[in-house]
Known about the structure:
With about 525 residues, the chain is an all-alpha fold. The chain has a domain at about 320-470. It is built from 29 helices and no strands. The protein has helices at about 5-15, 20-30, 35-45, 55-70, 75-85, 90-105, 110-125, 130-145, 150-160, 165-175, 180-195, 200-210, 215-225, 230-245, 250-260, 265-280, 280-295, 300-305, 330-335, 340-350, 355-370, 380-390, 400-410, 420-430, 435-445, 455-470, 475-485, 495-505, 515-525. Helix 10 (about 165-175) runs antiparallel to helix 11, helix 11 (about 180-195) packs parallel to helix 13 (about 215-225) and helix 27 (about 475-485) packs parallel to helix 29. The radius of gyration is 27 Å and the shape is globular.
Amino acid sequence: MALTVEDWLERARGGTGAGEVERCLDEAAALARRCYEWCAILAALEELPDVTPQKAAALADRTLECAIDSGELWGFREVATARVDLLDDMSGARRALQAGIDALRRRDTKGYEWALLAEAFAETLDDLPGARLCLAEGREVALRQRDADDLASVAGTLGKVGDRSAALAVAAEAEALLDDDSHAVWSVANAWHGLEEYAASSRVLATAMERATTAEDACVLAQACYSHEDDTGTDRGLARARELAVSAEDWYEIASASKKTRRGHEAVRTALDRAAAAVEDDDTRRSIAAAYHQWLDDSETAARIGPRGVRPETLRAARRSLPGWDATPAPLFDWLRERVTPEVLDRIAEADYGTDFDDHRAALLDIVTTGLVPRNLPWHPAEVVALTRWSRGEHVYHLDRAWCCTLLCLNADELDDVAPGLVESCLAIGDPVPEYAEQLLAWICETDEDDDWPALGLYALLLLRAAQDPADERVARLISMILDIDLDQFYSWAVVIDLWNELGERILVPLRATRPDVHRLLEAVGWPVAAASI
């Protein structure tokens, strides 16, 4: 398995002696392609006292080059921080932040980006004039775009840098731009609240509640009040949501908001009962049943409402046939879920820094226990499932990643960021999992809604089969099918483009000399696969 940037950084942290640490940093730098990887290298230097100033400066320069090329704002901030903290180089830090200004001026921006850059001027250089310059540009952008949310960001940062009068003025401008966007209302209320203008914050939310036209908006406003520890406003928002509720979906949102704002089981149950009484479509029925089970621990009512999901093989109907393959997602799904232990559930549920751990874990446990999946994976557990699929390197938990990639394959339309992790982890786990993964990918190919065969699905299937038996006649057949379709999708923006390449190098490149069809395929897909935009 190829090591990642983070693997080499971890080895550097445990390295003995300056030579070993520097070697690990060089390996990490050789792998770094994206700005967040260079930022990770710079951040690691704080923990590596043996690194020479010359090496730190060189890495800061490389990070700045990447930030300039990509326009990635965080790169400029991290370079400035490293220049000050590691090198006591204030002028170098200023050059990095000035490069950030130049980069923002070269492209369309949002007001909040200028606010983030302003924070860097204030926090890193204690340069309040520089911060105000950025905030003035951010204000102009947000006003031009009539973006109340971004103006609120500018107002909040003005308050942080000590320009209270300007902050109050911009907060008023943001409030004047408000429409029916409840999330923007929340942002403006946050700006007033951060400026300790609590009456103004309450006024903004109360006015929006009176004007709210949907239960969903009223629920968002109730949660905004809850975030400000305003129980009266929270109750008022939920009451307004109940006035506006017209559908089962509305009552489900009210139940969810009641849970998030800790209004108690009875409030949650009352809203769910109203949702259950009005439900008409199967997807909402499944969500309501899952809520009874996961939120209220009421399996009896959940069962009465209906099943909380469907079997994976019923999610999509076949649109074509892939001769020579058993096409079904069930064997892989069931083999993995039977091995998902409480420890696995805990690791996955913690993937978002522990946020909403209980909700994510309950949703995952329900899938494991019932063998059923939602037709559309909801936020709980979709967020932690998606995060777990990014795990890479020598410390990856392959069962965790294979399970999460399987869930995403069942629910996602795209394979570019999912299939490589699935292939690598299933091969790492070993028999019988690769064969089951082939069945899942064959099912995806047969049920894909596009008119053409999904090239990435066929390619992932090819990698699995060639890794196990390159002489299998189906390998040649897959290559022929891939060469007959549009290959543009191989030029993916996916951040796992390097994993596609690692798999190709490990599995297909050794066959290139003796297999003309493999050679033609690798040329056709542009191996090593290049990202059109990173």
